[in-house]
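Milestone 3.1: sequence recovery, worked example.
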């Protein structure tokens, strides 16, 4: 998963980033609330981890901003030294998905992050196909069909299609798409995402008159949507 971490203690941040990397995740770290907000306005993540006591805009204010401005319920986990019951209840009532009091433990943190992400996701990891009329995606054979007819796509186009169809309605940043489909490869840039999106938009006929829309979101990325009449 792609995770954003708000933590002003650099030693703690390095520790958490190491744990997350060991758990197979990528993590972007921010040491101040306003910087964190500026980034998540234009980038996308699977989970947000917040400390409470950080400079210029505390974690609770960040939580409120996210819940008031995001159009999807991104999972949020507090990891903080604030252990007062009133603070914990206030954060959970405002929309935090989980709350861990420091010192955090590695296995527990990873398990809780996985749990909140699983609850927020519509993806069934055991599924063998994805079907949204008129598309059928065979996950076992890496095959895409439209109205029963096979669509010829490259391996990366296939992976991008699966990622988009697993995140219908969600704004995905170019960086998020790039990491999820191509991995962290310094030789690949976001123009590659734009090129592949253009190709699959054409190959799958993702147009409003066909019931689908793959939109470019200014200064952010892309969103795949179903158009209902």
């Amino acid at each position: 998963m792609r995770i954003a971490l708000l933590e002003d203690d650099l030693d703690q941040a390095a520790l958490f980033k190491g744990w997350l990397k060991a758990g197979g995740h990528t993590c972007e770290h921010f040491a101040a609330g306003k910087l964190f907000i500026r980034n998540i306005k234009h980038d996308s993540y699977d989970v947000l981890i917040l400390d409470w006591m950080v400079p210029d805009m505390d974690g609770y204010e960040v939580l409120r901003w996210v819940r008031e401005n995001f159009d999807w319920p991104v999972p949020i986990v507090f990891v903080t030294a604030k252990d007062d019951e009133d603070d914990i209840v206030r954060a959970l009532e405002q929309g935090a998905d989980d709350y861990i009091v420091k010192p955090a433990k590695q296995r527990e943190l990873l398990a809780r992050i996985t749990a909140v992400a699983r609850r927020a996701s519509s993806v069934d990891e055991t599924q063998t196909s994805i079907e949204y009329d008129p598309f059928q995606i065979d996950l076992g054979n890496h095959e895409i069909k439209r109205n029963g007819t096979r669509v010829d796509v490259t391996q990366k186009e296939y992976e991008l299609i699966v990622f988009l169809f697993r995140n219908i309605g969600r704004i995905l940043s170019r960086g998020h798409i790039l990491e999820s489909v191509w991995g962290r490869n310094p030789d690949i840039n976001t123009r590659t995402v734009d090129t592949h999106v253009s190709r699959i938009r054409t190959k799958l006929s993702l147009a409003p008159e066909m019931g689908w829309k793959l939109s470019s979101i200014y200064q952010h990325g892309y969103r795949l949507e179903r158009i209902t009449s």
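The CA atoms of residues 77 and 98 lie 5 Å apart. Residues 129-226 form a domain with the Arc Repressor Mutant, subunit A fold (CATH 1.10.10.10).
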